[in-house]
Amino acid sequence: MILPIIAYGDSVLKKEAEEIEKDYPELNELIANMFETMYNAKGVGLAAPQIGKSIRLFVVDGSPFAELEEGEEYDPRAEGIENFKKVFINPIIEEESGEKWAFEEGCLSIPKIRENVYRKENLVITYFDENWNFHEESYSGYAARIIQHEYDHIEGILFTDHLSSLKRKLLSKRLSNIASGNVDTFYRMKFPEQKKIK
After folding, report:
1. What's the average pLDDT block by block, 10 residues per block, for the chain (198 residues)?
2. How many domains does one find in the chain?
3. CATH code of the domain in which 11 resides
4. Which of 17, 54, 121, 164 is the most buried (most CB within 10 A)?
């Protein structure tokens, strides 16, 4: 089932999410719905807070990064990205290392805004998969970046929080338009409740 994506301005996106237990209700159905929602919106990652659930869960599929546009050169940081489809439950980024590099990020909760964000190139993460198997894995390049972006979501951080205060000021009108529902998207969104004027 395709779920509406929570828009910028909703408090669920700014909350640190809770860990879940093995018996979390209808978890497999939730994961399937998250993948379907992500694919429908043409995303490469989706975190549970983006569908209104403040839990430590996100799904990723980096395969769109493997498709080169005409004239585009292969980026070695995309190594293995075509097979990078995973579910992360209760993840912990144990370590980040390497040089920071810039990449233009976007977010399904913040449509039509893309900005350069600097992140470290490598990470080590521990997590449970959808079958509750425990993993400790290392990632770099595009895969690490997708994880870092989605991990931020379960920490209550948005990619815009990484921007300079000047850049955020320049974007403030567009962000407030998104929060008030004044944005066109090809996928369903749920906008924050507008405060009633007394």
Report:
1. 97 98 97 98 98 98 89 88 97 98 97 98 98 98 98 98 97 97 96 62
2. 1
3. 3.90.45.10
4. 17
